[in-house]
Amino acid sequence: MARRKRLGKILPKKASKFQKKMGKAPGTITYMGRREGGTSVVNILEYNENVLSEHIPGDIDAIVAHKELPEISWIDIVGISDEDFIAKIGKRFGLNPLVLEDIVDTHQRPKIDEYEDYIFGVFKMLYINNEQEIVYEHVAMVLLESCVLVFQEMDDDVFKGVRHRIKNKSGRIRTRGADYLFFALIDAIVDNYFVVLEHLNHKIEELEEVVYDNPTPEIAHEIQMIKKEVLRIRRWIFPVKELVSRLIDTENPLITKDTKVFLRDALDHSLEINESIQIYREMSMSLMEMYMSNMSNKMNEVMKVLTIMASIFIPLTFIAGIYGMNFDHMPELHYENGYYYVWGVMIALFIGMMIYFKRKNWL
Amino acid sequence: MARRKRLGKILPKKASKFQKKMGKAPGTITYMGRREGGTSVVNILEYNENVLSEHIPGDIDAIVAHKELPEISWIDIVGISDEDFIAKIGKRFGLNPLVLEDIVDTHQRPKIDEYEDYIFGVFKMLYINNEQEIVYEHVAMVLLESCVLVFQEMDDDVFKGVRHRIKNKSGRIRTRGADYLFFALIDAIVDNYFVVLEHLNHKIEELEEVVYDNPTPEIAHEIQMIKKEVLRIRRWIFPVKELVSRLIDTENPLITKDTKVFLRDALDHSLEINESIQIYREMSMSLMEMYMSNMSNKMNEVMKVLTIMASIFIPLTFIAGIYGMNFDHMPELHYENGYYYVWGVMIALFIGMMIYFKRKNWL
Amino acid sequence: MARRKRLGKILPKKASKFQKKMGKAPGTITYMGRREGGTSVVNILEYNENVLSEHIPGDIDAIVAHKELPEISWIDIVGISDEDFIAKIGKRFGLNPLVLEDIVDTHQRPKIDEYEDYIFGVFKMLYINNEQEIVYEHVAMVLLESCVLVFQEMDDDVFKGVRHRIKNKSGRIRTRGADYLFFALIDAIVDNYFVVLEHLNHKIEELEEVVYDNPTPEIAHEIQMIKKEVLRIRRWIFPVKELVSRLIDTENPLITKDTKVFLRDALDHSLEINESIQIYREMSMSLMEMYMSNMSNKMNEVMKVLTIMASIFIPLTFIAGIYGMNFDHMPELHYENGYYYVWGVMIALFIGMMIYFKRKNWL
Amino acid sequence: MARRKRLGKILPKKASKFQKKMGKAPGTITYMGRREGGTSVVNILEYNENVLSEHIPGDIDAIVAHKELPEISWIDIVGISDEDFIAKIGKRFGLNPLVLEDIVDTHQRPKIDEYEDYIFGVFKMLYINNEQEIVYEHVAMVLLESCVLVFQEMDDDVFKGVRHRIKNKSGRIRTRGADYLFFALIDAIVDNYFVVLEHLNHKIEELEEVVYDNPTPEIAHEIQMIKKEVLRIRRWIFPVKELVSRLIDTENPLITKDTKVFLRDALDHSLEINESIQIYREMSMSLMEMYMSNMSNKMNEVMKVLTIMASIFIPLTFIAGIYGMNFDHMPELHYENGYYYVWGVMIALFIGMMIYFKRKNWL
Amino acid sequence: MARRKRLGKILPKKASKFQKKMGKAPGTITYMGRREGGTSVVNILEYNENVLSEHIPGDIDAIVAHKELPEISWIDIVGISDEDFIAKIGKRFGLNPLVLEDIVDTHQRPKIDEYEDYIFGVFKMLYINNEQEIVYEHVAMVLLESCVLVFQEMDDDVFKGVRHRIKNKSGRIRTRGADYLFFALIDAIVDNYFVVLEHLNHKIEELEEVVYDNPTPEIAHEIQMIKKEVLRIRRWIFPVKELVSRLIDTENPLITKDTKVFLRDALDHSLEINESIQIYREMSMSLMEMYMSNMSNKMNEVMKVLTIMASIFIPLTFIAGIYGMNFDHMPELHYENGYYYVWGVMIALFIGMMIYFKRKNWL
Q: Where do the structural domains in chain A lie, given as residue ranges?
């Protein structure tokens, strides 16, 4: 019931997705997400090795004003449903309309596009929310010369670690350029994939236990849900490997050689993640197999009980039926110990059957 | 019944397909579609940034006359079963006979062929008709210097959005060349794939619900139909990715650098579509698995009922059978409370069995 | 029975295949087919734009004599079991012994080999014979400067169309060189693959109907046969794509640029064929799945009938058994309406069971 | 039983394999095969176009002495378990220790290694022995300037044909260099793969027959054995294709251009073999599927018999039970024709059930 | 039970894995293994062709002091949970922080990273412990100019052979450089994979026996465990092939040409291992299939027993029931030999049924 409801809620949204966009010109900024109506909140963090300031600008012009400063600035825009606002930012930073379209298109697959003055990237943040569900959040990032623009749907905790390191001067982040910040954000996203995969692993191992002990149809359904979840995660995570390796290979001066060493590390993690997903996929398929084999096992057990009961008592009932006949001439009926003889035969038969089934290993 | 009929209608058409063409020389123009007999309707839309005119030319010469104009012209030919007419157009625009053959061959797989003066493309338009069926329509397009020729089987609504944008000067289409129009049409086709895939997704999710609740053989059949549909869609959609990327890589001056940025966007969408198809394929395979597991589940349930009923009542019937025997000497029959004792034994047995089955979790 | 016999006939032939050849030097001409003993029939068709002559040469020298003429000659050799004859032809045309070996090796997989003065190709002609079986015929072709040699096992109808076009001057074949003839023959072979695939499609769709209505074990066997057929066809057809694309890429002057445009068309068709085979493969696998699911469905139905009958009548029989006991003291037996009460209980039970099964959706 | 024993015999051998080698330095010559203790037998065949001599050398020095001769020499060493002997030969011919290690390592996968003065190759000879089992024999070959060294485990018959051709001057082998001999030996190995595959094909087709007629568990086991055999064969045969193509591409002067034409032929055969293995793999998987479907078919049949018998006779027994009750007041019992009426009802019920099952197509 | 406990122990560890690291800067040294708290034990082995010394240095400075010596030194650090200690070593040898991070990250996938002055590699050592379980141990190695640093979690026996060869001057290890030592260690790791795979092979073959004889649900579970084990092994072993081939292709002067010949040998082994894993994977999948087929076989057998018993005795009981009815007028009851006639009919029926089942091959 609950399931049906949940699906019911999601589907109409999805259905409206493409009708919204259909027929519009490419480059039209159309928000495709589910959290419409909210206004964007902008947060600017500016830092270099010595200085650090954080503030929430009053209006767009305030944002751009800050861009002139020599420090690295991390401009975080939370809430992307206000298409006009995004358009304004785009204009000020000189972003291509196609970039703006992708910023608000929450169904955009992960990608890296290089332009002359900036590098544009779209990723999916994955994290586990309080209801223990996997949340997929669209995040777009633009690397400019001394500035990183981040567009998110919701206030996040995936980037919390990076923010913390900047504020506490921990690690080397304060001594490096905007490209290192760009890397650090990607790295934070990728690192969080591990948490999600671990969550998945946990779930699969739990199901493994249950499948073995008690294979109910609900379990089969849950296994299918896991398989679907793995498919969906794979879809969003899989391209990341290629994107990071493209950043490593780029000749764009925005990415320095120093940062590429770190990107190589992120590439490593992406590879590991892709392998894990592959393994989880195979494990979830094994789960279904296991489920089917346990099902047919249960069936075997049921059939054995039936067969044993029927095979023993149907012949005995037949014997009782014989001596329940009303023929005038049935000599056995008049034997003094006929009744006991019959009992003897029945018990012998019973024991014989038991031995037979024992031998067949059915008991 | 209905199904059988539908197949019956399609098959003969298909059977005639290749016999029609067999033995003819390559380059022979042979219409391969199902809507024979109709005459072609030509619609010409001419525009530049300032001017816009639309008209239906009287004859072939009128079409070519218009080609001389400095504006971009979109020549839309609906209805391709008139082979002579196509041959005439081909001659006027200087198209290769092989191109003409492909224009009317509705079974041609998607392709891009570059010639010296023009680029020729074949695509499949997919859309959902009013009966909620997926329609596959063959469309051929020729990009010339300031002109795009479009050959379709039926009057469409897939290109409606493009036409609308031209007429309303929305987006940048009016300010760009024929290659942008060419791109815009491809983009419209690709965008519509999303609608079709969404329709498919809907159907799969509906089936998922039903499989879980009530796995009938009809459902199995529908799942197989979905699988087949996915196969067919994949066949027509899959090559598009490569075609678009070939357009991006081409050095043909007909495609400008500006348009290539937009084509990259279309490539992105094609990639996304291919991934989706892959996922739908796996989902439809999971559906079948789910169906099978629910089937064997139902079977398990049926067998449990049988086993419980038989295991309880066959032994009880045996006991009743014992005391229905007609032996002269059966002391129990003459016990005062013999009848009640037997009832006691029977009830005890019944309760014992119930506990046994309860323990086995069969109840 | 019939099946067993058919296999029995084929197997010994096959078994003798490699023993025949084993231990011989590479380049030894050993006929590997099944139609031994026949003599070769040679047919020569010579033509250019204006002239056309056809004749059956008396002996080998007559064949070569004709080679000197300025016209294009199509030398068709039907029957390749006469190894000496093939050797003589080979000598006259200067063919490599390995080429001659491949000409008579009917198990040779499709291939294109380029030599300095000629291009050698092996293909499989597939067609449907009058018994509606798929026939695989080995055909070897040699493209020389103004001559195409064709070696076939049987008189064919696959090349009939080409012959017809030459004789009727239809299409452009009469105005072009030997390479165009070479292409036209390959094209005819590839075109015929479509007919065979269509035949297969037909068979699969027929089986689909039957599987749904009446899944007998014979059907399962037929599905497996189809799967095997698809495997076999794929084996012979799959390499063609690569061969044609190698002809397109070759720098051999025997293939002119003009003909390459047409070869590109043939490549297109090969791609389409390969895709179709892939789809038929998946469809035949789906068929088997469908079969299995319908089988277990039938089983479910059988079990339901058994369970319903047993669950209703076993308890009722038990009740009848109770009152068939012969205890001296069974008060119910002496109730005036005892018999009717029992009937009442039985009918109530019956109705209760029916409602239960109805609720479970088993009726 | 037999099976268990056979496995018992093989496993300890295998288990000792790697412990033997573990911890030794790379390049240590450690015989890994199963035929220990035998001494090596050396046979030298020397020939050119005119001369031919064969002899068994007394000691190692005799072997090397012969190497000086201008003729081609084929030095055949049968028995490779004498590690010292192999080491001595290696020293005389200047072979790398790693080569010697591979010569005696019977588990080495097929490979081609090029060194400055020689080319080293390892292959698996496959043949059918008298017990109709597939035998895998390790063979190592070294091509030197005018000499081919062959190391085998057992006296073979795979190379018999080559030896025969040399002795009888048949084919071109006597007129060519050592590289042609090298090719001829590889060709002999590859040709024998066809015999083995044919054997496999035979077995699969036999099983196909049996699966259809009588699917016993033994058959399932045999199918699995076939699948395993195909896996094993694939493992040893699959790399050959690549090795031969590497020989074709090598720039090593030891392989002449003339011989490469023949190697291309061997490559063709390797491709064909790989395709066949692929097909046998799919066929063996189909076999298992077929087996499963026939199994569930048998089950269906069993269940139908049970259901028909039970559904007919349980209700009839119930009716008989009714009139076996001992109520004082059962009017029907006293009807004059009551007994016949009951028979009538029973027969009607019987016929009704038969019609019902007939309609369901269960009879 | 035991299983559940084991999982219980592992899971919390795993869960803590990524939370530990999350949010820290890349390059932070965080031990990720399970053996925390132990101190590192350093063992230094220094050797050249003539000299050999082994000692356990008192402190870090002692380690570096030794680095100045002209001999090859193998510095073995066992125990990597002391992050400060690792940091100090890193500083002294000038290692990049990312390298240090990977040294202690026991979940790092195998990799080779080349830096200017050193080559860094991570591998997984696999071995069978005394409980016959497969142990995965993280090992990191750094190749410097005349020194190899090895970081392990536990004191090992995988490298025992190498140590032994150095001490006994066996093989060529004492005469070669640090790169040969580096290779020898990798080779030892790879060689040990064979032992693990053999162990796996053993287990699979044992299961094969059991599946055939007695397919219990525990067996199904064990098969799934094997499948999972194969997946896990594949994950750690699979990348090794690529890493070794990268070492072969590197232009880094740290790896000499001589050593590359040996690396090629190690590459060969990696290829063989990957093929074996692939085969074990397919074998374990076959096992499951076999299990399922034997299960349904057992079911068939059970059903046959039930069907035979029921089909024989239900009709006989019906006959007995007939003559147990109490109708006043039942002429057969009064026949002198009625009782014997009925027995005759029953026996005839019994024999008939037996013949029927015999014919159906069910007995």
A: 27-294, 298-359
